Here is the input.
Amino acid sequence: MQALISGFIGQALLVEGGVFRSLRVDRSATPTPASPGDVRNFLARATDAFALEDTRVEQVLEALEAAWEGTAIFNLVQILTSPFEDNDTRSLAAEELDDSLKDHAAVAFAERSLFSAPWPTEITRPADCSSRVAAFLDRLGNVQTAIKSVDRAFGLVDLQLMRLDQEVFRDRFFATSIREGINRILVLYMTGEASRAEVHFAFDKSLSLKSFKNSREILNGWLKGLGNPERSARSIGTRST
Here is the structure.
């Protein structure tokens, strides 16, 4: 069975033997038949959808719940770091975030987006937030240098490895890397929380990335651009300052 999962709309579309079924995070854990209208609606709204191959309903449900909560974490961080929100709104967001952070799978999912690009605003924590929220926001602030390193290193990958339409290929590969969690694990590699072997293991699990031409060479070029994690991180930090 294959599945498309969207945390944005809290729905998964299951495909098996040409038959479509639907699974919603706020309903029964049993898939229901999906009409052509359900399929069209999903494809139109699920702009964040990602695929699972050769999966089971239980795995889809776990991934769907993590994507749903992970999307909520991302949105709550946006509220907490927005200069336009009032203190009451931020306090409420901090309370909700504290509860969501208990789900480690959801946190890992949220970090796929949170670690995909340097955060556009200063990361400050509310004075009355919990220690869990404070630690999470501090962590997000601490990885900004590593995120810049990963972003810069991808820009150093040899364009000759891309297809003829190089810019489109590059954008698609990078977007797929974000969705598949490769950017996240490269950031963890830069901070010493993941090994090079773990980066390759995560890449090997992604059929979507492996379907790209020269995908292995692109990953190796990306890692080459990172060089020594500590030295690269210090270098990027100095330039950004």
User: Anything to note?
Assistant: Confidence is low (pLDDT under 50) at residues 231-241. Residues 57-81 form the longest helix (25 residues).
